[in-house]
Amino acid sequence: MQTIFVLVKCELGATYDVASQAVERVDSISEVHSISGQYDLMMKCFLAEDRDIGHFVTEEVQTLTGVKDTFTMIAFKTFS
Predict the structure, then answer these.
(1) pLDDT digits (tens, 9 = 90+) for 14-62
(2) Domain annotation covers residue 50
(3) In Å, how far from its chain's centre is CA 1?
(4) What's the CA gap between 11 and 8, in Å, rounded?
(5) Rounded to two decimals, what is the model's pTM?
(6) CA distance 11 to 26
(7) What pLDDT score does 12 carry?
(8) 49: exposed, middle or buried (C-beta count within 10 Å: 0-12, 13-18, 19+)?
(9) Tens digits of per-residue pLDDT, 59-75?
(10) In this structure, what CATH number is given to the domain that contains residue 53?
(11) Cα separation of 12 and 2, whole Å?
């Protein structure tokens, strides 16, 4: 399983709508957090090992209505 975090910048006034769409429509997104700073949302995603991260982000995250920009980070190891 691959873990990635996608930071999302939303159109003005669209943050809550984007978050709702992400939770309802995209199964691979496990958590959506509103954050402060340069981006509005942080999405934690789990993808199968054979899943292409680029296709996932461009086809499933960036196509959500109200998404203006994204920044993707790949996680290597989880510490608990």
Answers:
(1) 999 999 999 999 999 999 999 999 999 999 999 999 999 999 999 999 9
(2) yes
(3) 16
(4) 10
(5) 0.93
(6) 19
(7) 97
(8) exposed
(9) 999 999 999 999 999 99
(10) 3.30.70.920
(11) 31
